[in-house]
């Protein structure tokens, strides 16, 4: 089974680029999208030309903001939105699809803001999201994929020293949040398989960041420890364009 996760930074914008050709070439069994920036009916209309997938959408109450979509060739046994915490459940950030042997959670974690004005909220969100994942794990193993909006270690961003505790995505509070996922038994599958790889999943549109490869690795597949031996590959697909993020892929035999 191949799962692709991609922050598309606007589904209607990326659809005008090479998005459909990219999806066709990647040929995922399950495609998880983040930051669709559209209402459910708009996402549905935009993705209407993709055949042979069950399609599910979770849009933010605010138009043109956040949002997730999940496309699956295999019909999920069930699908739920959000984490059932009212203060977190208005931005369309979570979809949970149940399959025979695991839960798949598509997530777009909140950004802490340019002025770090949402950092306290982000700290609470991380704690509540971890609790949510651990609750799911009581029933079945979990694969959580998406934009986690944090570079976990210095290897995960180009300019670690100049960004540390100054830039959203690389504050100690956010790093601690990711540490807590790892300590709780979730495995960063890319880093597990590629301990020394310097690869990024996000590049700012400013300063020719992608050309210079001044990037961040902030998109992840976190998997329950019991699934690690079933993971065959995890790759960062930086040859695909259209967003400020590139897709990431996980192949699992289960």
Question: Concise description?
Answer:
By secondary structure, this protein is an alpha+beta fold. The chain has 8 helices and 14 strands.
Identify the notable features of this structure and list them briefly.
254 residues; alpha+beta; Deoxyribonuclease I, Chain A; 6-stranded mixed sheet
Could you walk me through the main structural features you see in this protein, from its secondary elements to its overall organization?
Helix 4 (119-137) packs parallel to helix 6. The protein is α+β, with helices and mostly antiparallel strands and 254 residues long. The chain has one domain (2-252): Endonuclease/exonuclease/phosphatase (Deoxyribonuclease I, Chain A), CATH 3.60.10.10. The protein has helices at 11-15, 19-26, 40-46, 119-137, 160-163, 172-183, 189-193, 209-212, and strands at residues 2-7, 30-34, 54-58, 68-72, 78-81, 94-98, 103-108, 142-147, 186-188, 202-203, 215-216, 219-224, 231-236, 248-252. The model has no long low-confidence stretch (mean pLDDT 98). It is globular, with a radius of gyration of 17 Å.
């Amino acid at each position: 089974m191949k799962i692709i996760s991609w922050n598309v930074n606007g589904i209607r914008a990326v659809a005008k680029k090479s998005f459909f050709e990219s999806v066709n070439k990647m040929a995922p069994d399950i495609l998880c999208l983040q930051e669709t920036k559209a209402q459910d009916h708009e996402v549905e209309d935009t993705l209407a030309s993709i055949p042979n997938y069950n399609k599910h959408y979770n849009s933010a109450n605010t138009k043109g903001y956040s949002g997730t979509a999940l496309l699956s060739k295999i019909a999920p046994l069930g699908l739920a939105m959000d984490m059932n915490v009212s203060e977190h459940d208005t931005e369309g950030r979570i979809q949970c699809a149940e399959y025979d042997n695991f839960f798949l959670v598509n997530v777009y974690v909140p950004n802490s803001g340019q002025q770090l004005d949402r950092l306290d909220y982000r700290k609470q969100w991380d704690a509540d999201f971890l609790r949510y994942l651990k609750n799911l794990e009581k029933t079945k193993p979990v694969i959580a994929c998406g934009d986690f909006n944090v570079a976990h270690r210095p290897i995960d961003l180009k300019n670690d020293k100049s960004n540390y505790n100054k830039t959203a995505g690389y504050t100690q509070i956010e790093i601690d949040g990711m540490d807590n996922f790892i300590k709780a038994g979730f495995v960063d599958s890319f880093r597990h398989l590629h301990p020394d790889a310097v690869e990024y999943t996000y590049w700012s549109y400013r300063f020719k960041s992608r050309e210079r490869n001044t990037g961040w690795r902030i998109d992840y597949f976190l998997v329950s420890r019991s699934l690690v031996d079933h993971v065959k590959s995890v790759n960062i697909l930086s040859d695909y364009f259209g967003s400020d993020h590139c897709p990431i892929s996980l192949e699992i035999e289960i």
